Automatic annotation (TrEMBL):
<dbReference type="InterPro" id="IPR051081">
    <property type="entry name" value="HTH_MetalResp_TranReg"/>
</dbReference>
<dbReference type="InterPro" id="IPR001845">
    <property type="entry name" value="HTH_ArsR_DNA-bd_dom"/>
</dbReference>
<dbReference type="InterPro" id="IPR036388">
    <property type="entry name" value="WH-like_DNA-bd_sf"/>
</dbReference>
<feature type="domain" description="HTH arsR-type">
    <location>
        <begin position="1"/>
        <end position="93"/>
    </location>
</feature>
<dbReference type="GO" id="GO:0003700">
    <property type="term" value="F:DNA-binding transcription factor activity"/>
</dbReference>
<keyword id="KW-0804">Transcription</keyword>
<dbReference type="Pfam" id="PF01022">
    <property type="entry name" value="HTH_5"/>
</dbReference>
<dbReference type="GO" id="GO:0003677">
    <property type="term" value="F:DNA binding"/>
</dbReference>
<dbReference type="InterPro" id="IPR036390">
    <property type="entry name" value="WH_DNA-bd_sf"/>
</dbReference>
<keyword id="KW-0238">DNA-binding</keyword>
<protein>
    <submittedName>
        <fullName>ArsR family transcriptional regulator</fullName>
    </submittedName>
</protein>
<dbReference type="InterPro" id="IPR011991">
    <property type="entry name" value="ArsR-like_HTH"/>
</dbReference>
<keyword id="KW-0805">Transcription regulation</keyword>
Amino acid sequence: MTISDELPVRLRALAHPVRLGILRELFEQGEVCACDLGSAFGVSQPTISEHLRVLRQAGLVQTRRDGTKICYSPDGAALDWVTAGLDALRPAVPAR
């Protein structure tokens, strides 16, 4: 996938306040099981699962199965990639 294909997918995934909050929580905690996120955001478990699915499909989080639980952690490299993609959109501006 090229930057022009992947960047909109990742930006769409980040364009929801709950998903941004989930990602922030994952960066603060390192790894969190999906079942522990619902109460932090005041939404149902199915809603959290849907938001996590969007983040996973965008490549912004990684998963690990722990028995019946699925634990999520942030993919820092993917977020760096988004930042680099946004920087690439900016036209070169000469230093003043």
